[in-house]
Specification:
Blueprint: H1 2-20, E1 30-35, E2 38-41, E3 44-51, E4 58-64, E5 72-78, E6 91-93, E7 100-106, E8 112-116, H2 117-125, E9 135-141, E10 145-156, E11 164-175
């Protein structure tokens, strides 16, 4: 049930992000990470969506890499099994069955990497060990912005045997889009 509800929301948001590609209106907002050891900013069109459809919370953070066509990142934390709120200070990890933690990274228009619960389950079922599970921690959630940290391994083509793109030292401070 989690995958059925969360995946369409995640994919629709990701597609909207790729088509938006407008510059963020404030220099104080940021969305950055080391991707494979290279510092990368996803500040173009960076924003968050905070909603609770049917009382079930979801926060989506997304952005496009500055000056790099086709490179974008989306993170999503949701709970489709109950109405527990998403809270600051809690580390949401893709191994937690109570939360759906997902990420989509487009390295280019044709090379897409995935991380999250579905990939973690596929890796477990195929005997693959994920060294760095996707982890998202919100440090601040208010009426105008969402701040936090993230890290984890993303796998090309949603395949636990695929090429890995490691994200470290990820941070975000993005405006909530209404």
């Amino acid at each position: 049930m989690k995958r059925i509800l969360a995946l369409p929301v995640t994919l629709v948001s990701f597609i909207a992000l790729l088509s938006a590609c407008k510059k963020s209106s404030s220099a104080s907002y940021s969305f950055t990470a080391n991707v494979g050891g290279t510092s990368t900013s996803f500040n173009q069109a960076a924003y968050a969506v905070v909603e609770a459809p049917l009382g079930q919370p979801v926060i989506i953070v997304q952005g496009v890499a500055n000056g790099q066509a086709g490179k974008s990142l989306m993170l999503s934390v949701s709970n489709s099994s109950n109405t527990n709120p998403i809270v600051k200070g809690h580390a949401y990890v893709d191994t937690d069955p109570d939360w759906n933690v997902e990420g989509i990274y487009s390295e280019s228009g044709t090379s897409i990497f995935f991380a999250g619960n579905d990939l973690a389950n596929a890796a477990l079922n195929s005997g693959v060990t994920i060294a760095h599970h996707l982890t998202v921690t919100f440090t601040s959630i208010d009426s105008t912005s969402v701040k936090g940290t993230f890290s984890g391994d993303f796998f090309q083509g949603d395949d636990p045997h695929g090429k890995i793109s490691s994200f470290t030292n990820g941070t975000f401070n993005v405006k909530i889009q209404r």
